[in-house]
């Protein structure tokens, strides 16, 4: 049987009414739990996986797919409406999405996130079905030096994209880099900046930092501003749905996000967060409305949301073709497979094609289901904003702390949540951007470790860093990204850039 | 969005100087740590101390830059803050942290709920406290009971949900 | 308050008919990891086999299990209902993290499961046997890069022990630590490194698919269904098992210890446990009593020695 026969067979199974019901239940549960601030997709999947135990394999698989995609999508809802991302991949969604929501454009923001997730999920799942073996070969070419080059490129483009004020952007980034030093150095086992506190040896949890800086910091800042201000969030202003202009501005971003997200998700050391950062940087560079960035540009929601969903599908490439779980969610998925006594690995496509294609068909169905469920719900979600603020923020903080308490109820962890919450508040107060801190925490250790690994493998020979064509190309791109804006400024085309800089507060 | 004071644009900003000093102290901490760490570069030549040292110097440079900007009045004035509101919420989080191991999830989180509501202007604590407790108990039941997330339990949880 | 007392009384009465002990098992890791799964499988089996009426699992993650261990020693002393799951990784982590509490401070009950380490090379590598790999190591230790888990972990220790057994200075090995989640596996598959070291189960699917060549395992004798020599067979005296165990609180009486051991023995003998092990692919390496205490002491000695020689413990 060929690829398409298997896929059709899988779809035929998945279209059974009972199976569709399971998909609906999975998507609903996944969205419902994923939408709680502070609870990201990995925790959602881990929590809901046991729900699928009692079902037959087909039902279990489809419900699982629904929970997974539902959890992924649910996180963006709170990012957009409440500026409280549950995990690192939806942080950039909050940047523009929340500005849109504050301006009464929460409906279009949620819609472009939902449709973008759908489009990216669809295309990436099809790509998974058709070109997984090729993509995985490419992904394996990436060794430490190529990853290092990719991280350098990410640093350059991403920090430029966050730069309202170069000084403040860089300061935020360096705070993140400093926090990233905390913990045991993986390559030598040396404890760094841990001050003998054993809980610090594992470093600072990205989720804790993200939830603290965004959810807690935001709550403190909003409370501190007081109630009598006229920039109250407006639930709906103008159309609840996307206008023709919104569509026109979104579709390219969806496609770009997919193209960035899928391969990065497929890389063993990639990840949805890096994909979403790069997508945001790309959108900011390609947009025709640079003046809107930082004030609610729809591209800044459409691109990253597509990228993180495409990346989620990309994660399945190494999982299904090599048996490598590359993210926390993928590791939990592996546990899901083991329910059926299956070990995903290099032989899975050959020995269990029905299961693989069944899963891919399930993902397609779950994706459609998610769209069907969520588009009508947008009207309801935006009403979250009409909950009186005392109750709304009390609930947000309760769920934000729940995520931390559920995973690690240690006073040190909760103390960090509080401390970083205050940091997030102070940074907002003094106009420092928040996202670069998390970017630094995620990219910093990756860049450091990959650099040191690459040099160790080459026994200290620095030329190894440019000895591979991929690494050299990526570093070249990074250099160009650094130099071209300077040249543009010098040769008089910088007025746009100057104007943007002046517009920012 | 911010209040501007165009008539006095070049006043040195004391808060910003403090930020600069804080950055310098974090930078100093990293440099001190880098000094303490052994040089174990191994075959790569880059050891555990090298990257912290780089970040430390970077922070030092940013500290100087920040102080210079502060002296030139490059920082904009902050919006006026309702300090009590912020303190209510910080207090609520601290109370939750301290009470959690002793009193369990619902009492600790119920208190956080009420304090947050108070910080956002809800003065009727006799409503907010029980509401928070009941809400937290429901959340506990949902997550600990149905989804088997292990949350710390206290008297109310044991009373309602058993062990 | 009265209602609370009443409720506790009622709970007590309800629990009375089952005379079996109640346990709380501390998993010193986040939900989902190996120790957590061990604790939860124990919980499941202890309950379903009727050995214990109520079993709770508590997660205290951090620092290779030493955070959980420290909390356990502080809060569970003398309480026979408290158990902790741990493993070989803890032996190294206690040393490298300078943990104030060690495995001396708990009462080890039994080793439950374990896995041997495996040494592999990419399928495209010219190296065919572990002897050839060691020859290269002897000729130029820096040119042989090893991919494995974090520094000071079981994989790193295995490489150190092999180098030592082959007469190569363990400080000279070029060990590249990767974070979990298959990164090391990807580096081996992509031929970024010379060789790889990890738990056998991680490599087996790749070996079966022909993408990696299995050179040797760290078992004492050949493993059933695994076509590779042991290191001992190849002439290097290295035996290393990454085991998981269960321990009880410090300061319990001998009778209490015997009662716990009896319960765990019952669990180990049960069909439910065997089935659970089989479905998870865990090997039963049951060892209890003095034999286990002896093995533990030996493991600690070897580990401390090699970690010192690698330079991770001062």
Automatic annotation (TrEMBL), chain A:
InterPro entries: DUF112_TM (IPR002823)
Spans through the membrane: 61-82, 109-135, 147-163, 170-188, 200-223, 316-335, 355-379, 391-410, 422-444, 465-488
Membrane keyword on record: yes
Keyword annotations: Membrane, Transmembrane, Transmembrane helix
Domain DUF112 residue range list: 20-438
Protein's recorded name: Tricarboxylic transport membrane protein
Organism, as annotated: Cereibacter johrii
UniProtKB/TrEMBL annotation, chain B:
Domain of life assignment: Bacteria
Keyword Transmembrane helix: yes
Transmembrane residue ranges: 15-34, 54-73, 85-113, 125-143
Span of the signal peptide: none
Keywords: Membrane, Transmembrane, Transmembrane helix
Annotated source species: Cereibacter johrii
InterPro entries referenced in this protein's UniProt entry, alphabetically: DUF1468
Protein name listed in UniProt: Tricarboxylic transport membrane protein
From TrEMBL, chain C:
Residue spans crossing the bilayer: none
Entry superkingdom: Bacteria
Alphabetized UniProt keyword annotations: Signal
Residues spanning the signal sequence: 1-20
Entries under SUPFAM superfamilies matching the protein: Periplasmic binding protein-like II
Similarity section: Belongs to the UPF0065 (bug) family.
Protein name: Tricarboxylic transport membrane protein
The organism of origin for this protein: Cereibacter johrii
